[in-house]
Design goal:
heterodimer, A: 181 residues, mainly alpha, Ferritin, B: 249 residues, mainly beta, 2 helices, 32% strand
């Protein structure tokens, strides 16, 4: 199964490297596209939590972390959108492909979650924000590691690696805060 | 442009490939962050040289029914290694366990054990959890250094998620939250302006020692809270500290 899967990935990257009509065609595969689309969706969701936390967290360490996170997300999403545009791919996954049916919604933050956070106060607000960010950044890290392991485009693989490292560092800081009594 | 027509089928294939090698987000689920579980202590760096668990503390998934910290699965055996210097959080007899969830599986039960003693079981009846989850669990008089095994039993699969939490349990049920365990290194990159973690002076109608029922409303430090679970209040269980017990109004 893994061998077959790798063969599929090689086939995809092989297709992507075919020159077409005299224009240079970048070598990218479906993992690259999936990463960029999923990461953009995760940034859009997570930024709702981060924006609230930037305004309302009482712990200055949390405010510092989400300010850094939002700056990185703006930078990362600009690169992601540009590459999808370069490749002629939509910024959102094709819902008809069905690739995300069955697990997409269980990983998503929902409007009710943002409302729960918005209604929380003081230490409860901080704790809720830290918990939601830990879960969400854990998912962001998994998506990024998927790309660094299986992507084809060198720049986007490097971006996946970079994103995975950044989210891992942020998860570490949040875990230390979460572990406090 | 020929490539574009082949993409939908290949997208599905590539997704299946990613799932097969275990790097897709579908492999992620949840763990206990406070008091910190063994996987949380690995991922935060409080315990070094843990292996791959540092990247996915949420992925300790194995068949239901195990009493091992890694669930008896093929990965993350480091979690079973009691010779590691796992930090033990100082707690009283009543402990609130906070989960970080990266996937919201329909849940049958959440179980907490020390050894063969079932401390508590929470039946969700197949419901999906919210973005956060916490449970208040009584230690049944056990004290000293103990390891709590938590099991999150998924409703619609044969799998569970496992988390071991090392505790140093005080006796008597009146122990307030104490200082962080000395084995946890302090954050090294933080400004010296960390907020005080001590409790503010109590004000309002909330009182330790009072038995509260769901729906009871109290005030604490100028805010109003509604009780979510029946419990007898203890020092350290002030409403803003225990979202499992009190919802802010």
């Amino acid at each position: 199964m893994i061998t077959a899967a790798l063969a599929v990935l090689l086939l995809v990257s092989g297709c992507g490297s075919q020159p077409e009509a005299g224009t240079p065609s970048p070598a990218f595969n479906d993992t690259d596209v999936m990463f960029l689309q999923m990461a953009l969706a995760q940034i859009a969701e997570g930024d709702q939590v981060a924006a609230l936390a930037e305004q309302r967290a009482t712990d200055p360490r949390l405010r510092t972390l989400v300010t850094e996170l939002r700056t990185q997300w703006r930078d990362e999403s600009a690169t992601m959108r540009r590459r999808l545009l370069d490749w002629g791919q939509p910024a959102e996954p094709d819902p008809s492909a069905g690739a995300h049916a069955g697990h997409g919604d269980v990983h998503s933050l929902r409007p009710a979650d943002i409302a729960e956070l918005g209604a929380a106060q003081g230490r409860t607000f901080d704790r809720t924000a830290v918990t939601m960010l830990l879960g969400h950044l854990g998912n962001c890290g998994e998506t990024a590691r998927m790309e660094s392991a299986g992507g084809a485009d060198p720049e986007i693989r490097a971006l996946g690696s970079n994103v995975a490292g950044r989210r891992q560092a942020q998860v570490q800081t949040l875990l230390k805060m979460a572990a406090e009594p | 442009m020929r490539r574009r027509f082949t993409l939908p089928a290949l997208t599905v294939a590539a997704t299946a490939a990613a799932l097969t090698v275990g790097v897709a987000p579908a492999s992620a689920h949840g763990y206990i962050s406070n008091p910190p579980s063994r996987q949380a202590n690995c991922a935060s760096g409080a315990v070094a040289n843990c292996g791959d668990i540092v990247y996915e503390p949420q992925s300790v998934e194995a068949a239901k029914g195990s009493k091992q910290c890694n669930g008896g699965g093929s990965r993350f055996a480091v979690l079973n290694d009691n010779s590691r210097n796992w930090p033990a959080a100082s707690v009283g007899q009543n402990v609130t366990f906070n989960w970080v969830l990266t996937a919201r599986h329909s849940t049958s039960t959440w179980e907490y054990f020390i050894g063969n003693t079932l401390l508590a079981s929470f039946n969700d009846g197949g419901a999906q959890p919210g973005a956060t989850k916490s449970h208040a669990v009584n230690m049944k008089g056990l004290s000293g250094r103990q390891t709590v095994l938590a099991r999150w039993n998924v409703a619609d699969t044969a799998m569970a998620f496992y988390a071991c939490v090392d505790l140093n349990i005080g006796g008597g049920g009146t122990t307030p939250p104490t200082t962080p365990p000395p084995t946890t290194p302090p954050p090294t990159t933080q400004p010296p302006t960390t907020p005080p973690t001590t409790q503010p002076p109590a004000s309002g109608t909330w009182r330790a020692g009072t038995a509260y029922q769901p729906g009871n409303v109290v005030t604490y430090n100028g805010r109003s809270y509604t009780c979510r679970q029946a419990h007898t209040a203890l020092a350290g269980w002030e409403p803003p500290n225990v979202p499992a017990l009190w919802a802010a109004n």
